[in-house]
Amino acid sequence: xxDSRDARIGGFQFLDFVQAGPRRSAKTVAxxxxxxxxxxxxxxxxxxxLHTGFxxxxxxxxxxxxxxxxxxxxxxxxxxxxxxxxEARDGFLRLLPAGSxxxxxxxxxxxxxxxxxxxxxxxxxxxxxxxxxxxxxxxKKPKLTQDNADxxxxxxxxxxGKALSGATPVMWDVRRGTEFKLRRNTNRQSLGCHVRGQAxxxxxxxxxxx
Length: 210
Description:
alpha/beta; five-stranded mixed beta sheet; three-stranded mixed beta sheet; 6 helices; 8 strands; 51% helix; globular
């Protein structure tokens, strides 16, 4: 039985909360809570085929062909969805380093109190020089900012040892073809306090939605 006092969400869902801001954050959490506690399970993921396509593309000698197929299938049923998938495909291919290969990533979790954030849909890449990247492909319409990216990058940095040891965490805003990393001079202690504050705020909204 699911304990309604506990929240278990994905990293991108936590990022949705952070990006929502004070006016929309409570509604965002209420919607996520309804999906989590629904006995029929979470709703079908709108971007699920795109994330699957990314995993296939990084292990293919022809990544564009793999992603073209995903876009074509989406366009056949919903032109607007196909257009958004097409933007994501183009940005992803611009960001994908030439000669890189896919590496298996383990699912990792970050926990704070009653909130568990599961880092799903992440990608692992090995570059030509042997460097490893732990990639979070952000596919949503709202533009990603460095401040908001830092929240998920912090969680990735905290859990990368389990997910893909030795890798550098990066976020790709694939709709715009932009890469984000934690800056070397980022104060990790201050950022950690901010992230835990966001986690606490999430749980307040979660319990209020009961």
